[in-house]
Task: inverse folding
């Protein structure tokens, strides 16, 4: 692993002087090479699928693991769209000339070397490498053992493609040892890795956050709330809740909990529930919710802290906005929350006091996404507050550097 | 500690709605109260000094611990200057209206609750609290036991002052238990503290970085280099090195190591050394440095990795810019480095390839400082890459939040 680290440092130094044009040329070469070599990649992927079937992986996992020509073309399309995005590096973020004549510029620069630890999705191998390259970073990829043949094929295609463009092939490196040990070594590769990004399920992210001494960018879970204020448009509320709960079940920006004002519950909850019933969503609520609509099951305190990722929703009744805000700030994972209201003052107070990465008025929480926010690409959604918060695009893969131009100044 | 945490969460909620005007009023009230109560504070400080003398603290530590009317007035002046700075919160950093009509604003908001762990300097109690308050953060302060009486006096004066302005006094809290245990509890106060900033010596910072599960903003050490390029103006190089090495010895932006091109060493090193000799700076160099100037002692590999904080400097001879850059990137702590050159291309390459927070052309590394960079105030100098890099001002005590304004949008 140290040897990979040393090669990555050399690649980082190489990348510190490449131009936007050179990076985009390398990205387009990767896209072309993926298309050209799709048969080889599909063949290697077939070995992973065969091994996966023998190991008894479930259909969902096998589907995530599977690559065919169509999926490889989609990955290549994605690479081309990243190439078309603006370069996040070299931007002058601040500039000042001080009274002593020093010109001080704060510019965006690559983080340096990024480690990515992920699971059985071979598309991440290309997606993550390409976002790192576009932002000028060297990357060390460590995917799950289930996808190792696919990952080796994809990584070698990408390395050969950038090498032909005059790049150090070690700008992209793959860890081929997929033991737990290699992940653990990466978490302690201080001095080589500038940051580590885990991509995958809760267990993986927790393990990395708790064990890594390398700084981590955490992409977290979402126990997202929608609060139906007393003045809400009930039809709008029902539509938004239906969308946020059921449009896609297993995602971090899905709505998991409904908070509802006692003054509107009798009118609103039956309508909301009727719409959710069309998708058989199980509703678990407090006593007042159970009285307001038929078929609401009792909620425990644990329900209010659970990210179901399922056709289930909890309901909490409150008597005013203050109670709603306090409940949400206590139970949420600080991902995405929404208020449905026609009250201007309440909207403003909700926006100010809710301590989450993305706070909505009268819209579905499902929009918390790099693409929907117009960032162009997304490496994940951060629920931490340092460095990056909310959907992370290319810009979040950069840091800053002060460049100071003098002519002999001393202090 | 959990009880302090809970009070801080309530204070954070309170602070989410205060205006810039209210914050500045509270800051000016703190400044006035510190001046009014300076006698009380001096009396409490006298107890700390007495205890310190009995415990055998050295003169340097006693001096850092000491407060008199003059020093308290200087602290109050500092508070007033922070009040006069622009509010770092509520800035719209990005704004987009999406094709579906959603208005998405990215705004700066307080981090929330900040923990500060520091040592025996009672001025930090006021300085840190005031920077946190100005940036809308609740703060939990945990200073060293040597200053506990002074800290209690200062904190209670500040709490009373903001309380009279209608603020929750728990916006500022002091941990009065100064055992190692209380610091350890703070490092694991996840869910209450949004970040932890250690302020003090290397040992303190290392302990916090290695043990804290709360995200840390690291303020690090500086093994700063100055590279004298072949085309350097020798007099300018000697002046800058003299300034960067000797103007103040114990600071993180002082120059610790000189890297010099072999083509200029015979002309430049004797002049540089002659100037440093006026302050009896010990020079430890490689073989070529020992040949180029009289009185250079031999340097070990360890010297090149040492932050002396003393009247000592190491000298490394290189044959070209590439060797200089590789040596510096290997040995530096990524704080501040400078090139002295008249070569335009070399200056650009040094700026691009040196991986440090602040990179200079033809100026002293001593300028890496919030005040010198025009940030107005400084909470520390970050040598990490995530969140903040280089001198940190008020802006680095904020995070961002997406506010999304809809009228019923679903996905």
Result:
């Amino acid at each position: 692993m140290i040897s990979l680290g040393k090669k990555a440092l050399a690649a980082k130094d190489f990348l510190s002087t490449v131009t936007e044009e050179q990076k985009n040329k390398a990205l387009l070469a990767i896209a072309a090479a993926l298309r050209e070599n799709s048969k080889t990649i599909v063949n290697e992927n077939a070995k992973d699928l065969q091994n996966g079937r023998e190991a008894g992986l479930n259909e969902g996992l096998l589907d995530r693991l599977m690559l065919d020509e169509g999926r490889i073309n989609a990955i290549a399309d994605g690479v081309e769209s990243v190439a078309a995005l603006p370069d996040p590096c070299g931007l002058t973020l601040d500039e000042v000339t001080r009274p002593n004549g020093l010109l001080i510029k704060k510019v965006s620069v690559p983080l340096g070397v990024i480690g990515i630890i992920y699971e059985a999705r071979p598309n991440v191998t290309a997606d993550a490498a390409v976002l790192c390259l576009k932002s000028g970073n060297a990357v060390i990829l460590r995917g799950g053992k289930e996808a190792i043949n696919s990952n080796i094929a994809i990584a070698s295609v990408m390395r050969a493609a950038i090498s032909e463009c005059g790049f150090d092939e070690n700008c992209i490196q793959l860890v081929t040892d997929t033991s737990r040990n290699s992940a653990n070594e990466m978490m302690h590769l201080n001095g080589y890795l500038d940051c580590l990004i885990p991509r995958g399920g809760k267990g993986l992210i927790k393990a990395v956050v708790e064990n890594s001494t390398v700084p981590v960018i955490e992409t977290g879970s979402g126990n997202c709330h929608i609060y139906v204020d007393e003045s809400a448009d009930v039809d709008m509320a029902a539509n938004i809740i239906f969308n946020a709960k059921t449009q896609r079940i297993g995602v971090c920006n899905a709505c998991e909990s409904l908070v509802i004002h006692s003054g509107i519950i009798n009118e609103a909850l039956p309508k909301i529930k009727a719409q959710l019933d069309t998708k058989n969503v199980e509703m678990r609520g407090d006593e007042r919710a159970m009285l307001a609509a038929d078929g609401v099951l009792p909620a425990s305190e644990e329900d209010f802290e659970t990210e179901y990722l399922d056709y289930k929703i909890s309901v909490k009744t409150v008597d005013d906005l203050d109670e709603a805000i306090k409940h949400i700030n206590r139970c949420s994972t600080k991902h995405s929350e929404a208020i449905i209201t026609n009250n201007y003052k309440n909207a403003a107070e909700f926006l100010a006091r809710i301590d989450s990465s993305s706070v909505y008025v009268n819209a579905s929480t499902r929009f918390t996404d790099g693409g929907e926010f117009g960032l162009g690409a997304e490496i994940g959604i951060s629920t931490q507050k340092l460095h990056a918060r909310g959907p992370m695009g290319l810009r979040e893969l950069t840091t800053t550097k002060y460049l100071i131009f003098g002519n002999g100044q001393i202090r």
About this structure: The CA atoms of residues 110 and 135 of chain B lie 6 Å apart. The two ends of chain B are 43 Å apart (CA to CA). Chain B touches chain A through 69 residues (CB under 8 Å). Chain B has a mean pLDDT of 95.
